[in-house]
Amino acid sequence: MFRRILIANRGEIAVRVIRACRELGIESVAVYSDADAGALHVSLADRALRIGPPLPSESYLSIPAILDAARSAGADAVHPGYGFLSENHLFADACERAGIAFIGPPSGVLARMGSKIEARQAAQRAGVPVVPGETPGGQTGEEVAVAARRVGFPVLIKPSEGGGGIGMKAVRDPATLDAAIAQARREAVAAFGDGTLYVERLLEAPRHVEIQVLADHLGHVVHLFERECSLQRRHQKILEETPSTALTPALRARMGEAAVAVALAAGYRNAGTVEFLVDGTGDHARFYFLEMNTRLQVEHPVTEQTTAIDLVHAQIAIAAGEPLSWRQEQLAQRGHAIEARVYAEDPARDHLPQAGPLLLYREPSMPGVRVDAGVLEGDEISIHYDPLIAKVVAAGETRDAARRRLLAALRAYPVLGIRTNIPFLIALLEHPRVIAGDLDTRLVDAELATLVAPLTAEPTDLARAVAAQAAGAPLRPTRPIAPDPWVTLRGWRG
Q: Is 309 within 8 Å of 142 (Cβ atoms)?
């Protein structure tokens, strides 16, 4: 097992990995930019090293800076978290050449599966259906347009690299095709440095269902069932849950087998997620391979809550050369779990990201609710990074029990100083289609006006804060882990 792990990330995922290291008796090393000098992950780690100024390209995205920190700390492994360098094959390769274990897939697998075009080819070799589409033989605008016309409208123009919906353009009107191709390429080059495009048939209202997989160095692969990720806006997930209301036991088994087949075809190792679009419900629903995420997912806690398997522990063990601890027949789900992503953003203003101080911040503390956060009261939400504040995960014996528990937790989560999407999340969880489990990837966009309309009637941040204080909320939120109070400089009162 590793002696010291450097976490090449920030925020709640850095805190999450630090907690896992502490549970396993492994020293943790945090890295931070100047903007994060006082961040929670910095105070929780056994050691923290500055890596540069706030700009991500000069800190969290700087391979030389991260490697210098790892060497300086004497780290024998690096955990990349998600985002930043987590799916960068050049970073994984640099770690490998430096003799530092990369807690994720090998660099060759990252390169292969990081290309959506090559990932589709791997799925096809495995006999797994893919969304109908075509990779143009050439990459001129006209060649991409010809491929799109062959696939048929409506069509999606998609970058080969990256994710999160960046550079993805839906085209329903052939007259807008050329402009969409040009814009997709510009965005792909700006975000990923690669303007390679391909085209897919646009499925208008599918489910987005992903399968968690684990693979070891011996070629053993298991799946840990599905996560329903259909509730998203502009291809960014908002709520995730497991089990999916669309999957029957037979469909779940078929999709799990397909995910394992893709991982085997790719020569995969460590934790990953195989994403599918599902058309229809019931045993005979059709599913199509979409892509593979070669990292830990933001929504991994819902799988942990229903399988009792710690995915970060598993990642570390696999990277250390240990074989999988389970066979497929030993794995099972129990109950239901739903995760809500709490963002510093204003849903009533097109989900505009917010920045500023957390003047009051009180996390809910109740049975069956887990909060993964990277902030404390008094912290500053920076303009430089993703505005994710925390993830709230509720578990219950039934879906409705988990949903109601998540609603209760969100209502007991006052934040003062910046706007958050908490009222929007509450409205979404109370939407009739969400209550019924009738989900698809267009639901949020189709119902956005309805979901945003009542937000002006929500209590103000100040009213929520006063209500929390009147209810006797603690001065500090309960943390999943905490530093020794006698060695930290945070939290003292005069």
A: no
